[in-house]
Design brief:
Elements (H helix, E strand, L loop, with lengths): L2 H10 L4 E5 L7 H11 L4 E6 L4 H9 L4 E4 L4 H25 L4 E3 L2 E4 L4 E4 L2 E4 L2 H12 L4 E3 H8 L8 H15 L9 E4 L3 E4 L2
Parallel strand pairs: 1-2, 2-3
Antiparallel strand pairs: 4-5, 5-6, 6-7, 8-10, 9-10
C-alpha cells in the first residue's frame, strides 16, 4: 500500500528478493531501501522507477539496491534481471559460507580463511581480505570462466562504481603469491575479453 507498510511487512516476513517502487506514499522507495538494509544486508532489492536520470540510479545503488530498472519495461527483462540478481546473491553467499570453514587447498597452497594466510612447505604468506575473497570465489567455481563484472559484484559488491582495472591489479598481486611463474600463470588464467578461470 505504501512505504511504511512495506517496512512493516519486511519485519514480519522473510523474503529472498524485493521489487521496490521508488514513488510510494508515506515513505519513498529510497527510504524503504535504507531501512531494509539496516536490518538485512543479504536480501536482494531491485528498484522500479520512472526516473531514468543517472543520479537517481546512483542514489538507489548507494543505498543498497542490487539493481535498478526503469519504467516502462517488458516482463522478460524484469524476469531476466530477477534471475541475474538471485544468481549473484547465491555466488556471494557461497563465498561468505566458505569464509567460515577451515583450511583448504588452492593451487599448491593450503589456505586458512580464518587467519588470512597461505602456507606451503613451512612458508607462510599473508593475504589481504580482497585476495582471500578472490581465492574463495575461484575455489567455489573451478574450471568456470568468471566475467570481470561477476567477480567485481561478488568480491567488491554490486554497488562498486570503479573500473575493472582494480580487479586486474588484484589478480596480478595474487598471482605473485600463488603462481610458480606469475607471468605465465597456471592456476588463475586469463580468458581474454571475458575474465578469469581457476584451473584446479
Amino acid at each position: 500500500k505504501d512505504g511504511k507498510e512495506a517496512v512493516k511487512l519486511f519485519k514480519n516476513d522473510s523474503f529472498d528478493l524485493i521489487l521496490l517502487d521508488i514513488m510510494m506514499p508515506e515513505k519513498s522507495g529510497y527510504d524503504v531501501c535504507r531501512d531494509i538494509r539496516r536490518q538485512n544486508e543479504d536480501v536482494c532489492i531491485i528498484m522500479l522507477t520512472a526516473k531514468g536520470d543517472e543520479i537517481d540510479k546512483v542514489v538507489g545503488l548507494q543505498l543498497g539496491a542490487d539493481d535498478y530498472i526503469t519504467k516502462p519495461f517488458g516482463i522478460h527483462e524484469l524476469l531476466a534481471r530477477i534471475t541475474a540478481v538471485l544468481r549473484r546473491a547465491k555466488r556471494t553467499g557461497s563465498v561468505k559460507e566458505k569464509l567460515n570453514h577451515g583450511p583448504f587447498t588452492f593451487g599448491n597452497f593450503e589456505v586458512n580463511s580464518k587467519t588470512f594466510k597461505l602456507s606451503k612447505s613451512g612458508r607462510t604468506i599473508d593475504l589481504s581480505e580482497r585476495e582471500l575473497k578472490l581465492i574463495l570465489l575461484f575455489y567455489a567455481h573451478p574450471g568456470e570462466v568468471l566475467s570481470r563484472d561477476n567477480i567485481l559484484n561478488a568480491v567488491w559488491g554490486i554497488d562498486y562504481l570503479g573500473t575493472t582495472r582494480t580487479l586486474d591489479q588484484h589478480i596480478a598481486q595474487l598471482r605473485k603469491k600463488i603462481e610458480p611463474t606469475p607471468s605465465n600463470p597456471c592456476f588463475i588464467t586469463t580468458v581474454h575479453g571475458v575474465g578469469y578461470r581457476y584451473e584446479s
